[in-house]
Amino acid sequence: MSEETTVLGRSAPLDLRLSDSELETTRDHVLQFVRDVVSDAGADGAVLGLSGGIDSTTTAFLAAEALGEENLHGIVMPSEVNAEENMSDAERVAQMLGIEYDVIEIQPIAEEFFDVFPEAADDKQAAGNVYVRTRAVLGYFVANYENKIVLGTGNRSEALLGYFTKYGDQAVDCNPIGNLYKQQVRQLAASLGVPDDLVSKTPSAEMWAGQTDEEEMGVDYDTIDAVLALHVDGPLSKAATVRHLGVDEATVDRVVELYERSEHKRHMPPAPESLRP
Ligand SMILES: Nc1ncnc2c1ncn2[C@@H]1O[C@H](COP(=O)(O)OP(=O)(O)OC[C@H]2O[C@@H]([n+]3cccc(C(=O)O)c3)[C@H](O)[C@@H]2O)[C@@H](O)[C@H]1O
Ligand SMILES: Nc1ncnc2c1ncn2[C@@H]1O[C@H](COP(=O)(O)OP(=O)(O)OP(=O)(O)O)[C@@H](O)[C@H]1O
């Protein structure tokens, strides 16, 4: 890890874990939510991208239970920046659940974009987002054809930090785990029987080889969750949050900066107000 990407603050003694009864209620609530969204849409089930990570795995476990495995279609979409192990984990999840799944190689599709605008092809953020948005197009391609909805896998931590690609992995019809902080997703996953190696896997958006969420954001998820819960979602001031968590001001500032600068990602694109009365 380079000096600029040192992960800030690692002492966040805030326990956001759900109690056993909250876990059960959360699970039931999400199952009903998924059933309602699918049925309100008049759809025949759902499609989701499987990455072998904790978010898509947890969402798949919940959706298979909510809809029945025959109504969930997984898509595994490898590119040259994905670790093979993650793609085989994604297939393992589909096989464990007994859902239909396809493996669609997206490198050739992404290359078409890189070829027509080669000056951006080496920009890892811009190019990484091409992979993410290509997956979104394919998700809707399958969903349109099969009269299904597209399930998102975003959690509350990512949503508040804007840690997603606009019109990429956020281009979905609903986010079943969208009100859970990252550490609560891990807890729910374990309670659903998601294998331990997937629960404890290092989170990565895999937009370029070797990327990890925590290194890119500069703060670890437990600290992010604690600052979000106390200060962004909660009522504590910055000073009180620093005191409560025993982290430095820079850590709280970094989380707030990520939250504020991603405001545009949480709204419909604005247009000027109408000039007519
Ligand atoms: N103030 C503003 N008002 C309106 N629009 C604004 C804007 N600032 C930027 N924009 C627009 O937003 C664009 C930048 O946003 P975007 O294209 O999303 O790109 P950006 O936020 O730069 O990159 C996506 C981030 O999400 C992370 N990610 C992606 C996918 C999955 C996951 C995961 O872990 O699940 C994480 C990824 O590692 C990266 O840090 C700009 O090019 C511009 O078009
Ligand atoms: N290679 C892939 N194939 C299919 N879907 C993918 C792939 N990469 C990402 N996705 C989809 O985009 C979502 C966001 O990607 P990301 O890799 O950040 O999430 P994740 O791996 O599920 O969870 P984590 O943040 O813990 O790594 C995934 O949950 C998945 O639905």
TrEMBL record:
Mg(2+) binds at D55, E158. Deamido-NAD(+) binds at R133, K166, D173, H264, K265. It holds the Pfam family NAD_synthase. It catalyses: deamido-NAD(+) + NH4(+) + ATP = AMP + diphosphate + NAD(+) + H(+). The keyword ATP-binding applies. Keywords: ATP-binding, Ligase, Magnesium, Metal-binding, NAD, Nucleotide-binding. Residues 30-269 form the NAD/GMP synthase domain. The keyword Methyltransferase does not apply. GO terms for molecular function: ATP binding; glutaminase activity; metal ion binding; NAD+ synthase (glutamine-hydrolyzing) activity; NAD+ synthase activity. ATP binds at G49, L50, S51, G52, G53, I54, D55, S56, T153, K182, S204. GO terms for biological process: NAD+ biosynthetic process. Pathway: Cofactor biosynthesis; NAD(+) biosynthesis; NAD(+) from deamido-NAD(+) (ammonia route): step 1/1. It is an enzyme of class 6 (ligase). One of its GO terms (cellular component) is cytoplasm. Its EC number is 6.3.1.5. It comes from the Archaea. PANTHER family: GLUTAMINE-DEPENDENT NAD(+) SYNTHETASE, NH 3 /GLUTAMINE-DEPENDENT NAD + SYNTHETASE. Homodimer. Catalyzes the ATP-dependent amidation of deamido-NAD to form NAD. Uses ammonia as a nitrogen source. Belongs to the NAD synthetase family. This is NH(3)-dependent NAD(+) synthetase. It comes from Halopelagius inordinatus.
